[in-house]
Amino acid sequence: MSRLLSFLAIIAATLVFGGCQAQRNLDLVREMGNRNYAMGDYPAALGDYQEYVTRKPDGVDVRYSLAMTEMKLGQPQLAREQFYQCLAVHPDNQEYAQGLAEALLACNEREELITFLTREARDRGRPGDYERLGHYQFLLGNVDEAKLALITAAKLEGTKSIKPQMDLANLYRSLGDRESELKRLRMALYIEPRNQEIQKRIRELGEIPGPSFVLRPE
């Protein structure tokens, strides 16, 4: 009887040990990581995403989530490398480019940041690339370079979006340049004549945002 009990105990221990060693399904690992991230439990999310990327290195979307989690945990140096790997697979992805820009800024890698953003704008030529370049140039105190980049974005965007016009309006407001701010608001109003925010900004500057006040974007 004692031998039988010992044998059953060994079997039970083996099953428990084997169960602990079993790997989680990758879809479950990603789901748990996303859930922990959404709940703000970044250390737990980090472990989930690290497990996923270790087992599936080509899971670029999860690698991006890992990088974002590392940013939340104040680890931009680690996040920077993950963003670079994401961009190596999908060089046109603007979310990955934005993430890398944030990581480089957090690492205080100013020269690397501007070099990266300038190359992106030059090579891809999208309005969003120039908007991002202008934003970070301004954050770094390079006002003239920021203006140039945002004006280029506005020219590329044309009448498709008010974003670069509003970015320029905000830049000029921060500089106290009322005339230039108003000019960009008038161009934004041309694109979206019923936009209440633009109309309010124009009224704050002492003007009436009527139909004749709009200005076609350059």
Largest sheet: none
Q: Looking at the structure, what is the overall shape?
A: elongated
Mean pLDDT: 92
Count of helical regions? 12
N- to C-terminal distance:
93 Å
Share in helix: over 70%
- Uncertain regions spanning at least 5 consecutive residues: 1-20
Q: What letter string, H or E per element, gives the SSE order?
A: HHHHHHHHHHHH
Question: What is the number of beta strands?
Answer: 0
Percentage of residues in strands: under 5%
What class would the helix/strand composition place it in?
mainly alpha
Over the alpha carbons, how many angstroms does the gyration radius reach?
26 Å
Instruction: Give me the oligomer status.
Output: single chain
How would you portray this structure in words?
By secondary structure, this protein is mostly helical. It is built from twelve helices and no strands. The longest helix is centred in the first third of the chain and has 20 residues. The N terminus is likely disordered.
Write a compact overview of the structure shown.
The chain has 218 residues and is mostly helical.
Helices, strands, pairings?
Elements: H1 2-21, H2 26-38, H3 42-55, H4 60-72, H5 76-89, H6 94-106, H7 110-124, H8 127-139, H9 143-157, H10 163-175, H11 178-191, H12 196-204
Keywords:
218 residues, mainly alpha, 76% helix, disordered N terminus
